[in-house]
Amino acid sequence: MGFYHGLSGLNAASKSLDVSGHNIANSNTVGFKKSRAEFNEMVASAMGTGQCPGSAGAGIGVSVAAVTQQFSQGVITPTANGLDMAINGDGFFVVNTPDGVAYTRNGAFQLDKNGYLITANGDKVQGWADASATGTQPVDLQFPTGSGIPGRQTTSLQMQAANLPATAPDAASQTPVTPRHTYGSSVQVFDSQGVAIPVEVYFVKNGSNTWDVYDSLDPAATPVGQVQFDGEGKFTSTTPAALSLNVDPSAANPNNPPAPFNVALDLSGMTQNDRKWSVDKMTQDGYASGELTGVNVSKDGTLMASYSNGLTRAEGRVALARFTNPQGLAPNGNNNWVQTNDSGPVLYGSAGSGSFGWVQGCALEESNVDLTAELVGMMTAQRAYQANAQTIKTQDQVFSTLVNLR
User: Fold this and answer.
1) In 16-112, at which residue ranges do the beta strands (DSSP E only) sit?
2) Nearest to residue 288, comparing CAs of 199, 159, 197, 215?
3) Residues 347, 387: one domain?
4) Does the pLDDT value for residue 72 go beyond 80?
């Protein structure tokens, strides 16, 4: 038995050295999770049923029970790449590989020439194109590249934090009449081709707490409507209730103008008080065409894309996956894991929901390998290897003594 004891010990120590060596080799691999060799005692059971009380089977060595992965959190390190992501907590990124869906903690992502979010190995990162459609089957995430995003026609214009002076005289009672441009402002709206068109809005007082609204300085122009305020200067209504401006894009886009269009005018943010005429903010919902200039990720995994036209919008959300038993996942190379029966079914979700961790942008999760602990473990395994080799050597000497008996 002594030879087998020593041989099993050598095998166990060798496996421990292999595991430690693999861990040390991947100590700088992003998202790597260390492994641990686990061992079982081997016992030979005595045959028959007539054993004496307290007797037990003889130990015959050791066997490798399993090599288990340790999914403890790695240190999160900031980076300068907006597409780098780290998971702080439970979960895996979902990637589409040539062999099927896999899962990884390595968030070193980039965009390929077609706008797909990919890993360094070219695997496509998955999530949801609609940032609100979480929990369903994820798809490959893609950003608009090449021609970028098309322009969007303006449909609404809001005058926010604008004030008309309550002390202004009525136009009909003033001589000379206050020029129409006195209380006016301009803003750019966009046609369906993304071409910018200047639009003006002017106000002329017409009675107590009532102002006519114009979209032109032409003296012959008629007002597009009226805006009314109460005695405290608060907005009450417009006439008509749905006020709109008619925009003709032909002047700004003479070669290929689209059809004229209406822009809803929202004046509910206006006031009338003793302050002078002011417009602190005017907003509209159109924009010119633009090219992708950058991407950042929020902690819930939402991908915020920035474009050359000044627009920033959500272009999707990164999916996370988790399992009942992550140690049951099978390593598949390239720092990926695949689902097995032992891992249990996959559950998809967004970062920060349920038991899922948060996503940290401009950061990467380092390997969770503790180099000091691994080096100490290697020295321990080396001593165990030497000790088991000595067991075999001693057993050989015993046999030699027996053979040489006269």
Assistant:
1) 35-44, 58-69, 76-78, 85-88, 92-97, 100-104, 110-111
2) 197
3) no
4) yes
Domain boundary among the residues 232, 262, 284 is at 284
pLDDT at 169: 83
Place of tokens 């979902």: 94
Whether the CB-CB separation of 284 and 158 falls below 8 Å is answered with: yes
* Segments forming the whole domain that contains residue 64: 2-48+56-72+369-403
Give the model confidence (pLDDT) of 360-385 as tens digits: 999 999 999 999 888 898 888 888 77
Q: Quick one: 166 and 264 in the same domain?
A: yes
Answer yes or no: do 254 and 161 share one domain: yes
* Token digits of residue 239: 């006439």
Task: Give, rounded to a whole angstrom, the gap between the first and last alpha carbons of the chain.
Answer: 24
Residues 163 and 271 in one domain: yes
Q: Under a CB-based contact definition with an 8 Å cutoff, are residues 213 and 224 in contact?
A: yes
Give phi and psi for 151, each to the nearest 5: -70, 160
Asked whether residue 99 falls in the same domain as residue 26, the answer is no
Q: Which letter does DSSP use for residue 219 in this model?
A: T
Q: Do 351 and 265 fall into the same domain?
A: no
How do residues 25-69 score in pLDDT, each as one tens digit? 999 999 999 998 887 876 766 555 555 665 555 677 777 778 888
Residue 171: what are its φ and ψ, rounded to 5°? -65, -35
How far apart are the C-alpha atoms of 178 and 169, rounded to whole Å?
Answer: 8
